[in-house]
Amino acid sequence: MNARASTGxxxxxxxxxxxxxxxxxxxxxxLCSNPALSEEVETLAREIAGPDANAETQDLARQVxxxxxxxxxxxYARYQLLSRALADPYYEPRENTRNKAALLRFLLQKNAPDLxxxxxxxxxxxxxxxxxxxxxxxxxxxKQLLAMxxxxxxxxxxxxxxxxxxxxTRRRPND
Amino acid sequence: xxxxxxxxxxxxxRTNKSKTEIAAPSVPGRVQRxxxxxxxxxxxxxxxxxxxxxxxxxxxxxxxxxxxxxxxTADVVSLEWEVLRLHRLKWSLIRARGLEFLxxxxxKHLDYDLYSExxxxxxAEILQDDLPEDQAKEAQMLAYKCARNExxxxxxxxxxxxxxxxxxxxxxxxxxxxxxxxxxxxxxxREPGAVTLVHELxxxxxxxxxxxxxxxxxxxxxxxxxxxxxxTTAASRRxxxxxxxxxxxxxxxxTLRRSVQEIEDGEFEVIEPTPAEGKNAA
Lengths: 175, 282
Description:
heterodimer, A: mainly alpha, 8 helices, 71% helix, elongated, B: mainly alpha, 0% strand
């Protein structure tokens, strides 16, 4: 109810932010807005429909292809998110970054205690490694991964329905 | 898990053997289409050859009959890869934390005899800096005597170290840390000597590695639960793809049966008996 009653963002800042929503990971943008993806949809649709397909079959094949390319786009975005984070040697939980900044601020104050340089450097350079790093990424990026999972679920559902409709037309005896 | 998938794909393949041979797509065409389905989802440290092997095995078992079958099969491969990756991650996470607990334990319980040799080597290296090259053996001997706590040697070493603004304790701690890490790594590689020694030390303290692993599990429970949810999602999507392949195989079988029936209907015309034949019969 509240969502329906909402008139959207009111301030200029809010409107500007809402405008950028679709560009955060680009997954809500329609495939037709990207010429390269549109071309891939057409290529795959032709493969699915096969030669001498009638208009209905071609249309359903295009729906299957669109869902498939969309699915690929979502999965690739998730893969990119994980790969980039794993390749980042300085990746660490946001809480760690805040703690390090707080410690530095504290040490820059007057009358701050002396801390052995080796210990300070080791603490500042410490980042999660190996399986801990991967687990940290999954935890830190959980919100974004969940959003991507929703897109993936929708694309899978669209593809399944489109494939069933496509199969159904092929089941019907030729007129 | 691979076996489970292979059993399922083998089942799909076995039940439709004759039909799958009808329209197997050409390999170059398939490679082109696989590119359309997406690049291999490999992350840092994963072996492309192992992924290709899984891809080839599952494709060989399923024998996709058309592009849509290929789509589902490619899904099965990438989702199975994800399931395997997450299982590996879960196990590595518990194991790594378990080994950290083991290192903490060893740091407290490691016998001096087990790292004194390392201590002698480290100390001798430091002492050699102050002695001429031909007296290297003397440094080794001095370090050895110091390690055996011989008073004269300890005093002399302390004197030399003071000149270098060094102390004995950190060198001893460093040698111990090094040995602890080395022993834990050897244990992780299941080297027999290290396994026996660690188990002896643990038994002496009334502990076992299982307890460390259980502690690790408790400590990493949030991460483990998150990974388990991801595994469940990927596995259920993989199974859904396999079910779709099975459903389409059943549909393909029905289509083929109907086609065969239509061919047979066209081939064999029903011949009505003629009136003359009827009369003769009467």
